[in-house]
Amino acid sequence: xxxxxxxxxxxxxxxxxxxxxxxxxxxxxxxxxxxxxxxxxxxxxxxxxxxxxxxxxxxxxxxxxxxxxxxxxxxxxxxxxxxxxxxxxxxxxxxxxxxxxxxxxxxxxxxxxxxxxxxxxxxxxxxxxxxxxxxxxxxxxxxxxxxxxxxxxxxxxxxxxxxxxxxxxxxxxxxxxxxxxxxxxxxxxxxxxxxxxxxxxxxxxxxxxxxxxxxxxxxxxxxxxxxxxxxxxxxxxxxxxxxxxxxxxxxxxxxxxxxxxxxxxxxxxxxxxxxxxxxxxxxxxxxxxxxxxxxxxxxxxxxxxxxxxxxxxxxxxxxxxxxxxxxxxxxxxxxxxxxxxxxxxxxxxxxxxxxxxxxxxxxxxxxxxxxxxxxxxxxxxxxxxxxxxxxxxxxxxxxxxxxxxxxxxxxxxxxxxxxxxxxxxxxxxxxxxxxxxxxxxxxxxxxxxxxxxxxxxxxxxxxxxxxxxxxxxxxxxxxxxxxxxxxx
Length: 488
Ligand code: ATP
Ligand code: MG
Ligand code: MG
Ligand code: MG
Description:
alpha+beta, BirA Bifunctional Protein, domain 2, nine-stranded mixed β-sheet, about 20% strand, globular, binds adenosine-5'-triphosphate, binds magnesium ion, metal-binding, ligase
């Protein structure tokens, strides 16, 4: 089944259960001071759960563009290294606002996965909240009893607060969740080791696909829980992971969500990506694979963010987007030997593939391409210069530790990020002196503090002849030299 059809099947299924299908909210949030990017399907409905406003329907379903690169959910550093966490991904979600509850939500989740999509029941595990007596939160007996109708007890897992209890904050709506996991290992592997022990254990083939949150309680200021007057359901399913399960592959990158992008990178670089089924690859090939995964992942995050109005910049959300793009550029530069802008060419592939469902990526295609190309060109210049300088530093270093002052100079004068230097050094078997770097950083901060004080308080514009300590001419205006002096 193609990814497009999987997405449609989900939305149609919930439409048939009387859900209103709504479009994804933008990936960038402009009016929420607590959140930079949409990182889950429920973000756009938050106010309804807090009792502010009424949704258009008590039952809603959609697919939400999510970005997990900052704050509570930050998967950025895993991306490229694992095969199932992305920066940008789609979260399929269905909601009940004070309407249906656990019985329907779990029954429909099961029906969709096993009857509509016909996933193998024997590969599915479900989890329920085990309870937390210390905080007076009960075991989720209700969810357990519902699951027992569908799933043998040895595939029901009792999860702790971290995985199976959801809270909006220290106070407010909260409740137990029930996750669905899938075991995609081979039959031989599955009979050797039970998947039960691998759930929520970072196994790349035993992954969480769907989370069902039941907003059942309100946590009060004193920490105690009370039942909410109306109970809600919030579910989120990772679309790319579902595609992996449906397409008989063991990596999200081997699904048709990513293969067109990967093929384009292969075509541009002349290098090959090996699918997750190919074992025993060389160290070199592994690096190429990681770099390609980073690039095809990050281009989606950056392209959708720009299409939704967030240009790369030096502050806030724009800076996060710039850093994601720079991470992709660097992986290309280092492991694919790409010294010219090329990531921008992937935007056309993305627009072609996703444009039908997300028209913004098509309508903004030109802008997105241009912005990415410009960013690539300028960062590649920085990389070239910085790498050359770093090379010189390494050559003049005795031992394996580079001076923190030099690393600071690269950062301060050439805009070469510290973590980037650290990575490059690590790849070459070097490290740098973090303390020295930190000292330089503090000195620089003190200097700029002093400079700003200077410009507001310590410096005065005086007429010539009244100079105490001559510092320099600022400008010449009507033949009167305006001289800056330091007041002692
Ligand atoms: P995980 O434990 O795998 O990190 P999670 O518990 O953080 O996932 P939830 O917040 O429960 O994820 O989000 C709901 C669903 O979204 C998950 O069940 C998963 O399928 C999907 N998902 C979460 N994070 C990512 C990601 N970074 N990339 C792709 N899909 C994701
Ligand atoms: Mg997570
Ligand atoms: Mg989880
Ligand atoms: Mg989860």
